[in-house]
Design brief:
With about 280 residues, this protein is of the alpha/beta class. It has a single domain, classed as TIM Barrel (Alpha-Beta Barrel). It is built from eleven helices and eight strands. An eight-stranded parallel beta sheet has the order 2-1-8-7-6-5-4-3. Helix 2 crosses helix 11 and helix 8 runs parallel beside helix 9. The longest helix is centred in the last third of the chain and has 21 residues. The chain is globular, with a radius of gyration of 18 Å. The two termini are about 30 Å apart.
Length: about 280
């Protein structure tokens, strides 16, 4: 099964396009766990257990674990997702962007050490920074394309001088990912939910690629506009929400509150798809 097929199967089973981002901040943990980095696994595992039937994917962000020397907890967490939600793909949010033997080691870290199904990558150094990950058949890679941060304009929105209408940098990345770089059908793109019109442009350039779309929830992205711009029957979208779900409550009911928030978001996304 390819990674895209995994996404389609997960979407069909959960009737969901929602991805829960696992970005654990000990300072925001509930009750007696607050400030305790040793509880990162426990906190995230409780979120997973509460939402496993509602999501298309989980997206742990490696920096939150590495900052607290908690990579072993990340390994445990992904192993827990495998047991608790074997149908749900895991996207390791690492945004790696190196080349050569270093990229090969990063690929081993993502796919063999952690056992992720996909990883986020920066394509700034070109295809050399992507190719080592494509050697891992059945695994996916999401390339940063049009990100939701304001500074993304500094490079991504710049126009290239060319004969095909001066595409912007992010449109060029989308063309490469849809075409010559996508050797084994393993690539997807990261596009921010705060720019629905540009999601639509990316979708036009890359009609069959899965899109990972962060920014719904605390970052203010419009869930309905996101689905209308990006979802297609043969091209899944993975709409990420992190803080709005993880920290829906600061009390002992945090997992139940996370489930309620996830269900609401899942239903909004599904309703938007039904209207297409």
């Amino acid at each position: 099964m390819t990674f895209t097929e995994m996404l389609r199967a997960a979407e069909a089973q959960s009737r969901s396009m929602l991805c829960v981002g696992l970005d654990p901040e000990p300072a925001k943990f509930p009750g007696t766990w607050r400030g305790d980095a040793n509880k990162m696994f426990d906190f995230c595992a409780a979120i997973v257990d509460a939402t496993a039937d509602l999501v298309i994917a989980y997206k742990p962000q490696i920096a939150y674990f590495a900052a607290h020397r908690a990579e072993p907890q990340l390994e445990r967490l992904i192993a827990h997702i495998r047991r608790a939600a074997p149908q749900v793909p895991v996207i390791l949010d690492a945004k790696r962007g190196d080349i050569g033997s270093t990229a090969e080691q990063y690929a081993l870290e993502a796919f063999e050490r952690y056992g992720a199904d996909a990883v986020t990558l920066s394509p700034f150094m070109g295809f050399d920074s992507v190719q080592p990950y494509l050697k891992h058949h059945g695994k996916g890679a999401f390339l940063l394309c049009r990100t939701s941060n304001p500074g993304g304009d500094d490079l991504q929105a710049q126009r290239l001088t060319s004969v095909d209408g001066e595409p912007r940098v992010y449109e060029h990345i989308a063309r490469l990912a849809q075409g010559p770089w996508n050797l084994n059908g393993q690539l997807g793109l990261v596009v921010g939910a705060t720019y629905p019109a540009e999601i639509e442009r990316v979708r036009a350039v890359a009609p069959t690629l899965p899109l990972l779309i962060p920014g719904v929830g605390a970052q203010g992205g419009d869930a309905v506009a996101t689905v209308k711009a990006g979802w297609r029957p043969d091209a899944p979208i993975v709409v990420n929400s992190s803080r709005a779900i993880l920290y829906a409550s600061s009390g002992d009911d945090f997992a139940a509150a996370a489930r309620r928030e996830a269900q609401t978001t899942r239903d909004v996304l599904h309703g938007a798809k039904s209207g297409l």
